[in-house]
Amino acid sequence: MSQSFLNSFRVAVPADVSSVVGLVESAYRGESGQRGWTTETHLLDGRRTDEESVAELIGRPGSLVLLMDRADALVACCHIEHQGDAGYFGMFAVSPELQTAGLGRTLLAEAERIARDEWRAIVMHMTVIEQRAELIAWYERRGYRLTGEFKPFPYGQERFGIPRREDLRFVCMSKSLSEVAA
């Protein structure tokens, strides 16, 4: 059986909040995050998200948290939001044990499909911590380009993490969804 038959997508509901938080935390923080390549522990301490923030994303109009299940277990998630003629992509996490299995690429493609086909978005935007060169390169291989714009890191807001450096900021990236095969 091919891997595509083993994965299924669904939109998160309030009952999924704690599972989403657990997955995001495992992918980005602490010891489990260090098993995968998406860890931010060298840049940030503290939490990556919390139940209140995830619940707000699930309940916000024009916003959804997309989940990928494999054999009834949550293995990947992302947040996408409809913003006019654009989509916004964020809170992307894949279980550290499965980060080289192609799940991220598959979930990103589904998020782009939803933005393009259901929201009629023409572009997808995202932000990435500037110091995450390997992650920026991963997105560039999937057609995203640096826009030359930056956004400040929310220093002093511990719900986004406790910075270990004073030079953090976000780079803005975008991808034309007309380039994505329909």
From TrEMBL:
Domain of life, source organism: Bacteria
EC annotation from Swiss-Prot or TrEMBL: 2.3.-.-
Domain N-acetyltransferase span(s) in chain numbering: 7-178
Entry keyword set: Acyltransferase, Transferase
Family matches, as InterPro entries: Acyl_CoA_acyltransferase, Bact_Acetyltransf, GNAT_dom
GO molecular function: acyltransferase activity
Top enzyme category: transferase
Pfam families in the record: Acetyltransf_1 (PF00583)
Classification via CDD domains: NAT_SF (cd04301)
Protein name as it appears in the record: GNAT family N-acetyltransferase
